[in-house]
Amino acid sequence: MNDRVAASARRRALVKLAAFVAFVVVAVSVGVFLPIPSLDEIRSAADAAGWPGAVAFAIGYGLVTLTPVPKNVLGIAAGVVWGFALGALLVYLGALLGAALAFGIGRALGRDAVEKFTGARVERIDAILRRRGLASIIGVRLIPVLPFTVINYTASLTAVRTRDYALGTILGIIPGTLAYVAVGAFGFEPGPGLYIALGALGALSIAGAVVGIRMRRRGVPAGVAAASDTTTLTPREPNA
User: Taking the CB of residue 175, how many other CB atoms lie within 10 A of it?
Assistant: First the structure.
């Protein structure tokens, strides 16, 4: 009886994993083939729509983060079109929306398979993330070169607590969001605004490198957990 229950649970986990993989494939395909609106197109749409257009941009930004479309370009565009304060708010809210959606989808569809079929190395990473999840999420969010979308999906497949993921994202994306929007808002002409934005991006890169080295020494791969760790599935017995 217990064997049948365990086998049924494994089948359900594999079905959900297949649905998650299919979703990711569709999202990647959309990201590859979806054309990014030009700055003029975004500006024209914003001027024509007014405040509803700003809200639509934030929602659209959140949905775009489910795909591999470069989000930094949209962040810079938001600064150009809406200025620093409103542009940063729209990008920030959109990024939070996208991070929540990706985490919810991955946790609902892929986490069971990771728990049931992955090996000891992933269990070790899970144990570390249960203890240091907040610091780990903040750390990877501060590394500009790590893809935002990959972090969202990968974190959902680990044992990081939802609270730590949410708080780490809320805090960790602030510097990068402000820096990229500032580049668009203050333009590329030499001046204090541009220097501050570029300096912030440089500081984030250095800080991210330091965090990445420290996380690797602690046994946590950069990006929360290496994607390859969660895509190579080897059956193991359920915990007693």
Answer: 17
